[in-house]
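Protocol step 4 of 6: structure prediction from sequence.
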Amino acid sequence: MVGVYDDCTEVTAFCTVEATTYAYRPDLAANIFFIAVFGICLGIQFIQGIKWHTWTYMIAMTFGCLGEVIGYIGRVIMNNNPWSDVGFEMQICCLIIAPAFFAAAIYLTLKHLVLTFGQEYSRLRAEWYTWIFIGCDLFSLILQGAGGGIAASASSQSTSDAGSHIMLAGIIWQVVTLIVFAALAADYFFRVYRSRSTQTASAIAISHTITFKLFFAGLVLAFLTVATRCIYRIAELAGGWGNNIMQNEIEFIVLEGV
């Protein structure tokens, strides 16, 4: 938030809500709702992770949920004061990087699916999925976090724009990674389906359980929602700070929050 309103710290006759980056007060009810939802999910993931010893998956999911909670707390602060630098920095940094942790959790699942249904159908060794895609996700996370930090603390328009461009590069890299992952996952499951008559009895039994079907449906839904959110963020950041997409709260709630 730089420019002629550099000295604005609260809403006044000159420092209007419309002059802020978002040009609106973030909706209090919606943001409290998201804090509650992600807070509950954080607790569930933490307990489940300890119960089933899924440590890496638990870390990815809890950090993602924690980032969402902190980010929406920042937006609650901005509801009280749309000019709050603290609120702006909290939400821009945390809400930008949190989905990268959810993507990492999605990547982790493919390794275990390959081990369950057969390494022979995969074009990569099972453990490579973790190393390759988590590595790519980490690079995306670094870019988004660094860009968000630069943009949030910028004291000039050029620095703010530089931070935005770094964030944008990180999100684009994340989308590319998601697309490659989806292509490899789709290829693997097509090969598994084509060879279903030669599957082991245990693999066939697992694939027919309600638990697995719900898990797989949830995995696909999670992938689609993360990808949709990333595409939305690309469009939002590509237009620069204060563009029409960035100032549309309904689109933000639907495409970022929901």
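Step 5 (inspection) to follow. The chain has eight helices and no strands.
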